[in-house]
Specification:
Layout lengths: L3 E4 L7 H16 L4 E3 L13 H11 L2 H16 L1 H21 L9 H8 L4 E4 L7 H6 L12 E7 L11 H8 L4 E4 L2 H11 L4 E2 L26 E5 L5 H14 L2 E5 L22 H9 L3 E4 L2 H9 L3 E4 L12 H10 L13 H5 L6 H21 L7
Parallel strand pairs: 1-2, 1-3, 3-4, 4-5, 5-6, 7-8, 7-9, 9-10
Helix pairs in contact: 3-4
């Protein structure tokens, strides 16, 4: 049997991206199907559209505040050798995880080579993460434009990430979505968008990280806590100083130290001096250990919320974006908390400290809901991949 090709953003140095890509490989091993994660360095390398037009469109749909934050990271790296070394240490931790855990295909340097290699696979699965965001749709990698019509195309837990598709992408979205034999997405809002664009009713499935229990994730991490003593773990991607101010107030009430991963998607000035410990030599394995052993967790991240749920932690989730921001991705966290019955874990900076500290932590209902969704999500994959071993 030809292998299944997994099209993920495993190469992106982001904890959630790498862990969901690895979880997709875990599912393939569980199903005893041959697979390879398609080796990629940058999806833009495979686009056919004029790159200048692509960049213009990206500017139209992008979040400029975030882009400026990323530019500030590069500036700080040049200005501060210690910061540059810290950044390098973090990249090394990601590379080490990637080298050790991912089962990769041969690397293709251009679109033509990629199209030729596609013939060697029985099917392709795209997922999960925000791979059908408006900027990603433009380069055509995650939409499988390069895969021949006769090869099965499956979307598993892919996320569109936004509430509205820009007018200049409506036809492009219709076209690529209709080439997929199977589509299942991570959020109901994304399913509603697919129905609006194509008339297809598609189901919600779990992010691949949620297909496994916290115990099943222990095989890639050490049992002993990395941090000595009790602590509050903070994983905040957004530039929201008021959230950090609230956490400092929580710290004064609890007398716990703050451990935070900082300057991840952008340089954030309010991160400086915020944490008692701010480690950089942290890959996906260590990330899970920090979550599993924390007393409290504060985050604006989807996947940090996921693993907080899997480890039944006292976690609190902020919105990363204002709702009126064009590229807001708050919907995926709202959907996660809704399907697990944990919507009360989402807070804002106006919350009373006592209310936060006294909030009950009951995961019985969440575990029951997850088990039902695990069954339906795995059933979808079995249906989508049925018959491949006959080819």
């Amino acid at each position: 049997m030809k292998p299944v090709g997994l099209v993920t953003c495993y190469f992106h140095h982001n904890y959630g991206s790498m862990l969901q890509a690895y979880a997709t490989e875990m599912v393939m091993r569980e199903m005893q199907l041959p697979f390879q994660t398609i080796a990629c360095k940058a999806p833009i390398d495979y686009m056919e559209e004029n790159r200048i037009i692509y960049l213009i469109k990206k500017m139209l749909i992008g979040d400029w505040k975030m882009r400026l934050g990323k530019m500030k990271i590069e500036y700080e790296k040049r200005l501060d050798p210690v910061f540059a070394k810290n950044w390098c240490d973090r990249n090394e931790a990601f590379n080490k995880f990637s080298d050790e855990y991912f089962h990769l295909s041969p690397y293709c340097k251009d679109r033509e080579a990629l199209k030729l290699m596609a013939e060697n696979y029985s099917a392709f699965i795209v997922g999960s993460d925000q791979l059908w965001r408006t900027d990603s749709v433009e380069h055509g990698y995650y939409t499988l434009d390069w895969v021949p019509d006769n090869i099965r195309k499956i979307a598993y837990s892919t996320s569109i990430g936004v509430k509205h598709v820009p007018w200049f992408q409506v036809e492009k979205n219709k076209r690529f979505m209709n080439r997929f034999e199977y589509i299942a997405l991570r959020e109901q809002s994304a399913c509603d968008l697919v129905y609006k664009l194509t008339g297809r009713k598609v189901q919600v499935v779990l992010d691949p990280t949620l297909l496994f229990t916290g115990e099943q994730w222990m095989h890639i991490q050490q049992v002993e806590p990395i941090v000595k003593g009790k602590y509050i773990f903070c994983y905040l991607l957004g530039n929201n100083p008021n959230q950090r101010t609230l956490i400092k107030r929580i710290q004064r009430e609890t007398d716990l130290k703050i451990v935070a991963l900082q300057h991840l998607d952008e340089y954030i000035k309010s991160d400086e001096g915020f944490a008692d410990e701010a480690p950089y030599n942290v890959g996906p394995r260590e990330f899970l250990n920090y979550i599993r052993n924390a007393e409290y967790i504060f985050t604006d991240s989807f996947h940090c919320s996921v693993f907080s749920i899997l480890y039944k932690k006292r976690f609190f989730t902020f919105s990363r974006f204002n709702e009126n921001v064009r590229q807001s991705t708050n919907t995926r966290i709202d959907n996660l908390l809704n399907i697990t019955g944990l919507s009360q874990r989402k807070i804002d900076c106006k919350y009373d400290l006592k209310l936060i500290l006294d909030m009950p932590c009951n995961y019985t209902g969440a575990e029951d809901r997850l088990n039902l969704l695990r069954q339906s999500s795995r059933a979808y994959l079995h249906t989508a991949l049925a018959g491949l071993n006959e080819r």
